[in-house]
Amino acid sequence: MTESTSTVRGISDTARWVAYFRARETSRPDALFRDPYAERLAGAHGFQIANTLPDGNKHEWAWMARTYLFDQFLSRAIRHGADLVVNLAAGLDARPYRMNLPSTLQWVEVDLPDIVSYKEEILAQEKPRCRLERIALDLSDVHGRRALFADLNTRATKIVVASEGLLIYFTAEEVASLAEDLAAGKHFQSWIIDLASPGQLRLMQRTTGKQLSEAGAAFKFGPPEGAQFFARYGWAAKDVHGLLKTAAEFKRAPVELLSLLPEPKGSLGNYPWTGVCLLKKP
């Protein structure tokens, strides 16, 4: 393997890459969010990944927009009464520590054992602002996740799920199965996801995706129907925001990409779109 490909050792390393971009945003005087834990969580390896992967340090505007939009959707759900946040594939997200949250709010993070143990080590001396629990689980373990969702469904009456940076690594069949499992819980009421169009998926697969695929983190999911993909599995798209449009609103979008705006309506097809979507039970 070349040096650039060997920097990503597995799918958990992508969390260090994301933390790097959160650290970069935090260092800006005009930051849209501040994550004082991101630099420590990214570590030297996170910085190495971003600066050695081809195009690994190129799309800072998109990572900023994605984090910002998840922050906004989660804050809105909590203001509207969500009493449990379930963060699937939580990675090195530090929202329970950095966001303004009710102390009574339940927050459950789910991720692979290695990323959970690493995160607990880095944040051992920090205090979350809400009732935080971490669960080590491979979400491809269908029996295990169904048991977990059934348990969580008994703990609260208004559950919001977040899955930032997760679905793109699943096949369409795997996403459908996860969607049905979440919809089965009466108290799972909303789900925040990020999504890529087929055109964007192909673009990503040709660039950074080649190296990530070699490390077992291949990009797979970019449904032609967009957020409407989830309708048949119990979820209706209620609010959708494109990353490029969001970045442009804050004057962060690269000039060479502004010609792609405004976003097309209807099927996105080959249009290179990524965004964040709020899904709810119909």
Describe the structure.
The protein is an alpha/beta fold and 282 residues long. 40% of the residues lie in helices and 16% in strands. It is built from 11 helices and 7 strands. Helix 2 packs across helix 3 (38-52). The longest helix has 20 residues, at 60-79.
List descriptors:
11 helices; seven-stranded mixed sheet; disordered N terminus; 282 residues
Low-confidence stretches: 1-6
The side-by-side strand order for the widest beta sheet comes to 3-2-1-4-5-7-6
Number of helices: 11
The overall pLDDT, averaged over residues, is: 90
- Strand count, sense and closure of the main sheet? 7 strands, mixed
In which range does the helix fraction lie?
40-55%
**Strand percentage:** 15-25%
Quick one: how many beta strands? 7
Compute the CA-based radius of gyration: 18 Å
Distance between the termini: 48 Å
Structural class: alpha/beta
Summarize the structure.
The protein is of the alpha/beta class. The protein has eleven helices and seven strands.
Topology:
Elements: H1 3-6, H2 13-26, H3 38-52, H4 60-79, E1 84-88, H5 95-98, E2 106-111, H6 113-122, E3 131-136, H7 142-153, E4 159-163, H8 172-183, E5 188-196, H9 198-206, H10 208-214, E6 236-242, H11 243-249, E7 274-280
Parallel strand pairs: 1-2, 1-4, 2-3, 4-5
Antiparallel strand pairs: 5-7, 6-7
Helix pairs in contact: 2-3, 2-4, 4-11, 7-8
